[in-house]
Write a structure and sequence with these properties.
The complex is a heterodimer of chains A (501) and B (201).
Chain A: E1 3-9, H1 23-29, E2 33-34, H2 39-56, E3 59-65, H3 66-69, E4 71-73, H4 92-95, H5 99-122, E5 127-129, E6 135-140, H6 141-150, E7 155-159, E8 161-163, H7 167-175, E9 179-183, H8 189-196, H9 204-207, H10 215-225, H11 255-265, E10 268-270, H12 295-305, E11 313-318, H13 319-325, H14 327-335, E12 341-345, H15 375-381, E13 386-390, H16 395-406, E14 412-416, E15 432-434, E16 453-459, E17 465-469, H17 479-483, E18 489-491
Parallel strand pairs in A: 1-3, 2-3, 6-7, 6-9, 10-11, 11-12, 12-14, 13-14
Antiparallel strand pairs in A: 2-8, 5-7, 15-18, 16-17
Helix pairs in contact in A: 6-10, 11-16, 12-14
Chain B: E1 7-14, H1 19-33, E2 36-41, E3 51-59, E4 72-77, H2 80-85, E5 90-99, H3 106-110, H4 120-127, E6 130-134, H5 136-143, H6 149-158, H7 165-175, H8 181-192
Parallel strand pairs in B: 1-4, 4-5, 5-6
Antiparallel strand pairs in B: 1-3, 2-3
Helix pairs in contact in B: 1-7, 6-8
Chain lengths: 501, 201
Amino acid sequence: MVVVVVSADDPAMHSSQNEQDNRFYARFANIPLLEPADSQEAKDMVVSAYEISEIFDTPVLLRTTTRVSHSKGIVEFAEKTEAPHKQFVKDASKYVMVPSNARGRHQIVEERLEKLKQFSEETPFNFIEENGSKIGIITGSIAYQYAKEVAPQFDYLKLGFSYPLPMKKIGEFIKNHDKVLVVEELEPFYEDQIKAAGLKVEGKKYFGHLGELSPYRVAVGFKEVGVLDEIPVAVISPEENMFPRPPVLCPGCPHRGAFMALKKLKVNVTGDIGCYTLGALEPLNALHSCICMGASIGNAIGMERVNNSDKGTVAVIGDSTFLHSGITGLMDAVYNKTKVTVMILDNSTTAMTGGQQHPATGLTLMGKEAGRVDIPTVVKALGVKSVRILDDYDYEATLKTIKEELERPEPSVIIANRPCVLMPKRIMDEPYVVDAELCTACSACFNISCPAISASEETNKHGRPKAVIDETLCTGCSLCAQICPTEAIILKSHFVKVEEV
Amino acid sequence: MKDNNNYGILIVGVGGQGVLLASEIISETAMKYGYDVKKSEVHGMSQRGGIVSSHVKIAPKVYSPTLSYGQADILMAFEQAEGLRFLDWMKKDGVAIISTTELIPAIVTSSKKYNYPEKPVEIMKKKAQNVIAVNADAIAAELGNPRLINTILLGVASNYLPFESELWMEVIKKRVKAKFVDINVEAFNRGLKIQLSSVEA
């Protein structure tokens, strides 16, 4: 059987919640590891990964990082080849992992690892670039590109097949150079193994293990070692005290209605992974935990069981995340009779990652017709007695429903099912406008964090700015109009200018 | 201005302004011209009004897909304060092409903690040698579509890159939806007329 696992790490956590180094999984599982350093290698290594998997009868881990995955380069294709279809061959000693069989397999894994060590010495993915330098660099993945960029004059041992390491090749390389540095992002994965083999290298103490490397950071490291004089530096001073521009919920995002209500109720809100995580940011500040997919419900259960709040706890989780890893948490709440309110923010898409389909949309990822899981039916089948469905554009109804469900002594679920305004189709209804005569500059609408609402040039008598709505951004969701205390926000067609009357 | 044949370009803006499309167009044009090209960006939040930046590296052989501070030959900013934010990525003699577009985020409006800089373009002109401020909003409005800022600035940038207009046009036609090709070609040509010498020296 051929198994290739692709895993992308995210140094600097551009869009992740942890900064882990998945290369350790290859070592942990005793399986080969491939690390592409650019788009061409990413393509070539996928082909090789399949071959290695087949030849050595092993799963293969292909590990990239943000800058390998989120970059593009010129790629040359090879001839397409067809692989013959193979059928599953029954072999209990291999596929039935009961202890008596597993003991035999462990033996095979160890033997396989020895063969892979030999392969690692021979594969062209681990290559040496000689430039006649006394300085040798052992590197892989994107760190190779950074090092080559700032110091092309050194000798390189570039690792592409990096578990098991080609320790003989590494030993030779070290022997042939006065000084050898290991440049790798995140953990000292190569460095520790090389040192454990009794070889002399340095690395992490110059390049660090936090965040992502860059040509700049690698150059600074080389300078600190004393092997590089010039480093690329800014010649124009950076601007101090720039305002932040965090991502925000889109204009017309239905989640905004849910977070406005949750904020008003001052409940503890355990969150999950998706667009709605943005409810945590100011000025909404309406989501108070976000750990991993599915954690919202588990967190809420734990918090409720220790009576952490007299206002109550609400777990918010999106439709695709609920289907991915929320169902088991909800089952726990039902089984253990935990009083918890779960709000499924069902916008009918996987919005944060670009609008992918999921099991409740009725379409495959390729847009073809698929089976459809009905979320309310799933929730009821788990044994949740109270399942309320609402439109989160209706602020008062949302507020009232959450309040009522918080009173229940048992698990309850609220499904807010207004679809995403961007996907699958962009929804633009008639925009709202602000009647500056009526606007008192109270800032209530500023606090719902809508990108369509900004400060007007006009101010009230205390000099505070009134609100203005960008009609090209407003989708007409009406949430701001619903909370405006002076009814200054009205549909554009209802707004008649005084001079026109 | 350029004495060698490698180019670092940094394109910045706010989610939804077309930063990624602009960097795709530059990259593909450079590739068709015969250069090695790499580009990199992180765009998980791009649709949510956050900052988007895209690095494009063009040379006979490119290693890192990202630039370093002080290494950009061209900085293109589709929002003026974002141009200011990324100005230190530019070379001293680099060219900053800045749309005077002003997008003030909700966090600045709703909080007293933050301020949008006053006259970002003026600050940039004090710090950098070559700043081209383009009222791309006005040009786009004239052309009848507010979503043309990226193409207008591409036209300006093309004055500082060695690729012929025909090559740019070929790529724009391929990359832009058919019904928007004409208006984008027009936007590019409007930008093409703008360069350092055409604004105040």
